[in-house]
Amino acid sequence: MNGDTTSRRTRGDVTWGLLYPMPSKKQEPFDAYAFLESANLDNEVVTYARGDVVFSQGDPCESVMYLRAGEVRLSVLSRGGKEAVVATLGAGEFFGEGALAAQKVRLESATATMDSTVLVVPKAEMSKLLHSQHAFSDRFIGHMLMRNARLEADLVDQLFNSSEKRLARTLLLLARYGKSDVPLQVLPRISQETLAEMVGTTRSRVNFFLNKFRKLGFIEYDADGLTINPSLLSVVVRK
Question: How far is CA 217 from each of CA 206, 223, 228, rounded to the nearest angstrom?
Fold first, then answer.
């Protein structure tokens, strides 16, 4: 059997790296926040409460952001007023990197889904760092490649998998299952409407499948939020 776990496909159902594409070699831990803080950049740390808008679609694209703590949702609004959630980011991830690709305005909106702390790095400073600090540049490029692979996996998920499997995968991703750090045991409160937007289905279907997952013991509801059992992965890999 091939040891490469970055791609796994079956006819009629596609599982792309299961959840997160797995790197072929384990990288040493790299504290990007500590590095950016010690680099004497003209940056700033901004805190956001749940529901606060970090930036809106159409805003000037003048900085790259690093999510130190919390969670941020990226969404796009169509001309007809329909919103689509394109990604949910956790601590340790960059966003707003379109500034480095000569984007003049933000192509999506970023909203804090829980109390969050964001390090804002001006575009010129970030570009200078990437050219002069090779270790940091390597980690940033690795991050972008992983993000691109995640987007490809999301597209494959939308094209080939049922809404039940898409919901299960979304819940596992929100719990950071499959990443090198410790998965979250309890997800912050997230509405069924938001889950429906992320999965690409209706709220009623999300409600139906959540109740099904709960009865099967894959998830639990309590006052603190939603607890995800790793056994939910069986829904994703099921043929």
Answer: 16, 17, 9
Q: pTM above the 0.85 mark?
A: no
With pLDDT > 90 as the criterion, what percentage of the chain qualifies? 27
Q: Please report whether residue 126 resides in a domain.
A: yes
Please work out, in degrees rounded to the nearest 5, the angle formed at the alpha carbon of residue 126 by the alpha carbons of 120 and 127. 155
Averaged confidence pLDDT in the chain = 80
Q: Are residues 64 and 100 in the same domain?
A: yes
Express each pLDDT in 100-139 by its tens digit.
988 999 999 999 988 999 999 999 989 988 988 888 888 8
- Of 146, 45, 31, the closest CA to residue 92 belongs to 31
Q: List 90's β-bridge partners, or say none.
A: 71
Is the domain of 142 the same as that of 166? no
What residues of the chain score a pLDDT lower than 50?
Answer: 1-16, 18, 22-25, 27, 180, 183
Residues 143 and 172 in one domain: no
Instruction: Write out the residue range of the structural domain in which residue 228 sits.
Output: 162-237
Question: If you ran DSSP here, which 8-state letter would residue 26 be given?
Answer: P
Residues 73, 138 share a domain: yes
Burial (CB count within 10 angstroms: exposed 0-12, middle 13-18, buried 19+), residue 224: exposed
C-alpha span between 112 and 53 (Å, rounded): 6
Q: What is the CATH number of the domain that holds 180?
A: 1.10.10.10
